[in-house]
Design goal:
By secondary structure, this protein is an alpha+beta fold. It is built from 3 helices and 20 strands.
Length: 322
Amino acid sequence: MPARPAFRLSLLALALAAPAAAGETTLALRQIDDLKAVIATVEPARQLVARARIGGTIVTLKVREGDVAAAGAEIAVVADPKIALQMQALAQRIRSQQAQRDQARIDFDRVQELQRRGVSTQSQLDQARTGLDVAERNLAAMQSDLKVVEQQLSEGAVLAPAAGRVLSVPVSEGRVVLPGETIATMAEDRFVLRLSLPERHARFMRAGDAVAIAAREGAGEARARAGRVRLVYPEIQGGRVVADVEVEGLGEYFVGERTRVEVSTGKRQALLVPAAAVYRRAGAHFVRLKSGAEIVVQPGDAVGADVEILSGLRPGDVIVTP
């Protein structure tokens, strides 16, 4: 029994004497992206407008704000009573012209038979042929006019120019509209983050650059999203350059919603250490050097698995990572 405590004390002494497994890192300046936090706005890649193609009264309105419409879906129906009256008038004229055409064909056949028997002259045959040709061409013209009116009637249906979400409907059923008037404004079914930066950063932005998007507050997102610059607009307006960032899953955002993003505005030199090498004690951050000394440091932003050190260390220091 007395030997057992002595054995435990010897084991404890050996454990304290044995160093923990550690890694050594020699610090050197590294080039990293100089990130800038900006506010971006969720915008549709293109904003679409569904317009009335004919004037008349809205008899049917099938969408409201927030609805999702497929490409070519019927949004509203505009009716003009005058078009129906024009169709009726043209139908009557066509029937009258068909009767004249039939009579002209009978006259031509009769003169042709008489001319074959030698009773009629060639001039009478030519005159009958001309009358038949004029009657047929007039009938064809009237039928074309009827197709034009039928096309106008079909254009009363207002169609969605592309798939997307309806943003606003500034009209209501029973309202009189003119040709070209807006029936609905839609956002194309593809959203981007549109950001604006000072023009001094324009030369650093390129299509394809990675962008970090902050997690949406109140949506239960655990981590930030990643996106890429889709387009940098070649025109600077008001001293600012505009760029579009493509991110998956923006369809659940509101159009015009703002979120914070981080974009690269150049390169800079930084001193990075493994995040595991920094520990906190008594409200301060420390790292341990190879010599065993503890150095108070001021950490900055995380860069992958490393963290930037703003003060306390210098290139060439060898730190120990447990």
